[in-house]
Amino acid sequence: MDQAAAIREAEAVKGAARGWAFTPVNGKVPTLPGWPDLPKPDAEQIRQWARAGNIGLRCGSVSGVVVVDEDRHKGGRLDSVPRTPTVETGGGGKQYYFAAPPEPIGNTAGRLAPHVDTRGDRGQVVFVGSVHPETGRIYRWADGLSPDDVQLAPFPADWLTKLRGGNGNGHQTPAKASVAVAVPDAYGRSALEAECRAVREAPAGTRNDTLNRAAFNLGTLVGGGILERVTVEDALLDAACASGLVSDDGERSVRGTIASGLKSGIAEPRRPEPTRQGTPAPAAVEVDTDARDSSTPPEWVDAPERDGATRQAPPAEPTSRRVAEAAIWRSADVYELLIAEPAPVPFLADRFLARQELALLTAPPKETKTWVTLAAAVDLALGRPVLGLFAVERPLRVLLADEEMGLRKIQRRLQRITLGLGLTDNDLRAVAERINLRPQQGMGLTSDEGIEALRVALEAFRPDVAIFDSFAAFTSGITSENDNAARRRFYNAAIAPFKQSYDLAVMMTAHPPLPSQNAAPDAKTRPRGGGDILAVADRAFYLEKVSETKTEHGRIVTATLGERFSREGGGLDGLCTVTVEDVGPNATTVRATSSESGSLAAAVGKRAACEQEILHTLRLQPEGRIYQPTLTEHCKGKGYDRTRVYYPALNGLEGLRRLRVLPAVPGSGKSGKWVQLSEEDDRDD
Known about the structure:
Layout: H1 3-17, E1 21-26, E2 29-30, H2 43-52, E3 55-58, E4 65-70, E5 86-88, E6 94-99, E7 107-113, E8 116-119, E9 124-126, E10 140-141, E11 153-154, H3 157-164, E12 171-173, E13 178-182, H4 187-201, H5 207-223, H6 229-243, H7 245-249, H8 251-266, E14 284-288, E15 303-304, E16 310-311, H9 320-328, H10 334-339, E17 347-349, E18 353-354, E19 357-362, H11 369-382, E20 398-402, H12 407-421, H13 425-434, E21 435-439, H14 448-461, E22 465-469, H15 471-476, H16 484-501, E23 505-510, H17 531-536, E24 539-550, E25 555-566, E26 569-584, E27 587-594, H18 596-604, H19 607-620, E28 625-627, H20 630-635, E29 659-663, E30 673-677
Parallel strand pairs: 6-11, 19-23, 19-24, 20-21, 20-22, 22-23
Antiparallel strand pairs: 1-2, 1-3, 3-9, 4-6, 4-8, 5-6, 5-10, 7-8, 7-12, 13-14, 15-16, 17-18, 24-25, 25-26, 26-27, 28-30, 29-30
C-alpha cells in the first residue's frame, strides 16, 4: 500500500470511530449520486473507499464538524483562528475543523473573508491522506493540530453572526432552504428540485454548463408564472455553492451564469396544463429545496379533448424523477444549434480519449496493439502525453483489464515500458497507485456476475479511463469473435451505463477479420464481426504494421495509427506513426510521431465531415463562402493560415479544389475563421 493510502485509511478509521461520515471523491468531486442524503457508511465501507482513492469528510450535522477552508493560493486569510484541528491541504491552503453548532450551518463562499469558504450541512471537504489532483501533494494534519492533539474548538460566535447576519458579499447555502412558491400540483417544485440536484451533483468540468442549462429550464417556468425568479436564483446559487463551483469560479461568475440562463428561459415561457378543470390557482406551499425526493407526483386525471371527448390519462402514477424530467423537457432551438460553436469534446487525452466515450482500437495479432495500450496506460497515469503525442492535462486513474495475456507476460511488458521511460522510484509508485491492473484471463463479462464484478471494481477504484483488451475475449471468449449478441449484451448492460455514470473514457481493442480474397478494402481497419460495435463507438482507430527490423536488443516495429472515424467527423488515414523499439536488453519504448496528412487533416477538421459540410453549405451560399465553426478550435493558435483538403467533385464543381482558411469577414457577425474555395486546381500539389 502506498504512503497516501496508508495515511488515508488510518485517519479514516479514526474518523469513523469519532462518528464522522465520509464519501468517495474523484480528485475533489463526490462520486456517489445523492451522496448528501445517503446513510452514514460503516467502518469497513470507509476503509475500502480509503484504500481505493481520495475520500471526503461529509460536513455539518452528519459528522458534527464544520470546516472553514482558507484558500491561501488565491489570497485567502483569516485574522485569528482558535486552536483547533487543522489540515494543510494539497493545494497549499488550510482547513480548520470546528464543532458544529446546534443550529445547522450551510455552505458559504467568501462570507468570512475573500477566498475563505465554510462547509457545513450538505457539504464536504477532501480528507487527510487524499492526494491533490493537480499538485500531487497529500492532505495532512498540521504539526500538533490533529484531532489526537487538540479537541474540536466551538465555532466562533462572531463568525456565526457574520454567516447568519446577511452582511457581506458571500453567500450561504442554507441547510434547509424553505421558500414559498405557488406550485401547481408539484410541477414547479419537481423541476426546481431536479435541476438543483443536477447542479449539486455535476462533476467538475461540467458544473457551469449544468448550471446554465438548469437556469434556462427553470427560467421558462419563471416566464410562465410557475416559479418566482428570486426563489430560483437563491436555490441555484445554493446548489452551485454546494457543488464547489462558487469556490472555484467565484460568486460573481456564478451569478452571471444564472442570470444569463434565466434571461433566455424567461423569453420562452411555458406552463403545464391544468390538472383539474375548474381548480382554483393553488395556494403557496412550503418547498424544501434540499429534500431528496419529497415531492408528490401530480395526479393524472381525465381531461376533455377539444372535440368534447374525454381523454383517458395513463393510470400509473409516475415517479417524481419522471415528473421532474417531464417538467423540464423542451424542444431545442434549431437556429441556435446551427449558429453556435460546437461544445468542446471532454478529452482526457487530446484527440484520443474523451470522457463518456468508447474508443475502439483494431489491429491484427502481433501488430503492437497491446504494447500501445500498456504504454498508454502508463502515460495516462503519469500525466504525460500518450505515446508522446496526445496531450494529457493531469495524471489519470486507469483500470487496465486484460483477458488475453497472463500476468507474467503483462508484468514483463510493463517492466520493459517503464525501464524504457527511465522512470524513478517515485514515478513507479505513482504508476502503481493510479493503475488498477486486472488480468482477467478466462473471465467473460457478459454474465450478470461478470458485469457486477466490473461494477464493483469501478465503484472501488473510480478510474478516469478503462481499457479492455480485447473486446472479443471479454464478450464471447477467445474462440469466437463474431458473437454480436454477446457484444450487444455487454455494451448495453455494462459499457453504455458505466461510461455515463462513472464519467469514464473507455478503450477496447479488437481484431480485424481473417484474411480473405473477397475482403473489403477497409477490412484491416474493421473489428471482426464489428457492425454492432462500430455503430456504438465514438471514435475508432486502427493499427497497421509497416515494417519490422531485427536489432541488437530485439526488434523495431513501425505501424501506422489511423483514425477510421471520430465524433468530430471523418477519419484520418495517417494520424501518426507508432514505433515500438527494444532499446536495451530489458527496455522498450513505445512512441508516436505525427504524420503530415494527420496534421493537415486535423487543422481543417476530418475529411468526410468537410465533404458533407461543403456540399451542404454551397447549396445555401452559392457565392462560395462557407462558415465552418469547427475550424475555429482546430486552427486557433496553431499557426495555420492555409490548409488543403482534397475532396471529390461537389455540387457541380469539377476536380479538386483548395480550401483556404481566412480571417473572419468584417461585418459578417461571425467570429473565428471562414473557408473559401479557390479556383486553383491542386491535382499536382
